[in-house]
Each structure stands twice: as C-alpha cells, then as structure tokens.
Amino acid sequence: MTANDHVVMDQTPATRTETDQPPVSCEIRAIGPDTLGELRERDDAGNPPVLLTDADGGSPLRCCLRRSHPGERMALVAYAPLRRWAHQTGASPGPYDETGPVFIHPGPCPGPAAVGYPADFTGAHRVFRAYSATGQILGGRLAGPDETPDPVRAGAALAAMFADPAVALVHVRAVEFGCFTFEARRG
After folding, report:
1. Domain spans of the chain?
2. pTM summary value
C-alpha cells in the first residue's frame, strides 16, 4: 500500500438489530504524497520542516499511520487538514480552520502497511470531530481506551459519527496535545 492509497473499511458495529442503521463505510486517510511533498519543502505555516531523530520512538507518523521506531528520522511540520480539504471541495470552514504540528517522514514513505483503523493508534483516548460538507463543525466525541482498544471497536466509534448523514468527514485527534492524527471520510 502506498501513501496515495486510501483505506476503505466497513465500520459496522459487531452487533446490530433490525432497527439499526445500515453499515457505514469510511476511508481512513493518511496525509497524501502530494501534500507530503509540499510539507517537506514548506509547511502550512510557511516554515521549513524541523528535522529530528526520535530517540525513544513512539511518535505518531501521519504519512504511514504508525508510531516511529527508536532512532527514526522525522520531520515536524505545521499542517492544516481542514483548509486543504476545503480547498479541494470548495467548502469554507471559516473559524474552524486550524493548523497544528504533525510528524511525517522527511523523505518518501510507503504509506500505511495495513487496511482499517490504524492499530498503532488504538488503546488511547481520541477526540473525533465531525464536519459537514461545508466545513462547519457538527460536534465531537471523546473516545476513551474502552472504545479504542482494538480496530473493531475504534471503527464502531467512527461508525457512530457517520450514522449522521450530515457528517462528511471526521478528524481523529490525540487528546493529550490536540494534534491531528488522521482523517476519515464517508465511503
């Protein structure tokens, strides 16, 4: 799988009844290769990337949706995911536009190695922020470790957001720093 690929997953909760909504599918998206190329030159704040080595490992890489290995080289860049999405779709997020720090590889990256909710990002508190097709925030959800201990339960948390037909995309963020982790779009 390359960074250009988008992971399509069926977000059907493990148990459903006849009155439940139909299964919801979504695409899990790492930062794409064209955007990565731009960020490696100048980030969304207009600065060059900050190159560093992660001595201990464990930093979330948004280009391949995994945690860094000890001693791995990384680039820290400012990224504006909603602004970039709005530019592609014609939406106008207005005050909901945010720029924040993310770690990426400083050079070419093969992208996510597996499909589905990134296993390296389960078992932690996450904030899921839902946005409309016009770029307005519709709400958020705090997903605790009990909801994200594995990809299936994490996917169910996303499915709950996409059950609302007004939700066009969801940004998944780390609770500790509020940093963008990845994007999910309606499938």
Report:
1. 7-13+23-186
2. 0.84
